[in-house]
């Protein structure tokens, strides 16, 4: 694919923020510091960071209903912070919040890239994440020999996961995501991935047996309620005005 017409620095920041800051850090947290279901919920702090960066750099305004929506979602994250245990540590929360920050940075720089071929943009930017991810893998997996042995011994399920992560999620998902951000206000687009916890927590419960106590359901409900308010309040308000 031809290199997109965007500065090298922009490509580098996007690649490092997405490949290393978001996924590299979050996968380490999921491995030992936080359950996958909760991680899929906490990483949605990207909404707050994306909207904040849009206000700071793009001078986008924040409407009153959006403030309410963000506040309700934040209450859900507070509930999670109050229920740390052996499966969810403060370090895990901090790492996943950092992943959310990285996602917010990636959203911001991709919007600054303008109207370009987003698939080509994601492919070229991803190349910048390879060296640091390889270095991190060597450090945490125990060196070159150990990393090579683990790679050769990986089961078929692991390779299916790699293919899904690289093609379906990274290439298609983030190309489509970047296109949406280039066409619509960040405050409107950024909350959409709050749907992720529905699938994340559901899949974690089904495949990994993660418990879903009432506080997890309550936290997820608050976060999703924030999404609903942010996305549907304007149309709901318009419908109400037709009758009054």
Structure, described:
It is a single chain. This protein has 244 residues and is mainly alpha-helical. It has one domain (8-243). The chain contains 12 helices and no strands. It is globular, with a radius of gyration of 19 Å. The termini are far apart.
The percent range for strand residues is: under 5%
Q: Which structural class do you get from the secondary structure elements?
A: mainly alpha
Q: What's the number of structural domains?
A: 1
Counting DSSP H or I runs of 4 or more residues, the number of helices is 12
Intertermini distance: 54 Å
- The geometry reads as globular
Q: Could you report the average pLDDT, rounded to the nearest whole number? A: 85
Major beta sheet, specifics? none
Give me the strand/helix succession. HHHHHHHHHHHH
Q: Helical percent range?
A: over 70%
By DSSP, the count of extended strands is 0
The parts where pLDDT drops under 50 for at least 5 residues are: none
Q: What gyration radius follows from the Cα positions, in whole Å?
A: 19 Å
